[in-house]
Amino acid sequence: MTLQLGIIGTNWITKMFVEAAHITGDYQLKAVYSRRMESGQTFADNFSGDIEVYTDVNDMLTSGIDVVYIASPNSLHFIQAAIAIRNGVHVIVEKSAVANTNEFEQLYSLLREHPQVRFFEAARHIQQDNFKALETCVNSMEHISGATFVYEKYSSRFDAYLAGEEPNVLSPKFAAGALADLGVYPLYAAIKLFGLPNSQHYFATKLRNGGDGRGVAILRYQDFDVTLIFGKGANSYLHSEVLGLRDTILISNIAELEEVKYNDGQGQEKVISKPGPANPMVDEAATFARLINQPSETEAEYQDLLLLSQRVNHVLTALRMDAGIVFPNDKK
């Protein structure tokens, strides 16, 4: 079934997702929500077809669409996802899905009340073939000694921050910052590959607004540690690694996964990745459509994915609390 798609948010990532969704052939954009009619219409004009533009989110979510993609500020994800679920609309929400564990558990309860609705966090990298090759390689290693995952790149909005402004993506008022925006990528990889840690600690470099501009998180497992390095105020070109004994997996970028190599430590190195699609969101869009359109056949796969999102949110919240970073959503 071709899914009738609505979107919340009209930025570059939303355009990339809609393009990816159309490439799969499983979706058709039918509705756009924006606070301003002009910006919504400008976005809709990028695509062909009969597309309605709304300035009331409730009107869009009751317009008959099948699924909504949410790419609004993080602080709004919970309420918008909750409205969608109550109206029987499937949800694809950009990471971080919600601000804290309380919000996630409320959505979990709503999903139990509306079992026909499916909820996905758009952690695109774990749906890519190169991540699956990485996972297979990790599972084949005889021993894990540790891992370091790096994702640090200079934000397009950091100049504005340095000039005295407070962009949404760097503001705790909008449940944002380095951990919530970029740290979630290496965190997803770590929990998907190794499960929940025994403990977690976050050493954040604070911004003047009390949020985090960069940081280092340590996930402690029974026999090894995983170090996550991420930030929005600098560019890092470090590779990510999974350490065995002699052997090592080298990853060009834990979020983009352009190249993944296995080095046996004895003179042999093998590239285990393949060139991915030009649009990195195609794989996740196709996966979500399959899970929506084949609910009976994919129930176990969907529940595993939902559990993974719950675990990521749990550790994400614990890391933020460890660093003393408070969001307004925490007080609700």
TrEMBL record:
It holds the Pfam family GFO_IDH_MocA. Residues 4-116 form the Gfo/Idh/MocA-like oxidoreductase N-terminal domain. InterPro entries: Gfo/Idh/MocA-like_OxRdtase_N, NAD(P)-bd_dom_sf. It comes from the Bacteria. GO terms for molecular function: nucleotide binding. PANTHER family: PTHR43054, SCYLLO-INOSITOL 2-DEHYDROGENASE (NADP(+)) IOLU. This is Gfo/Idh/MocA family oxidoreductase.
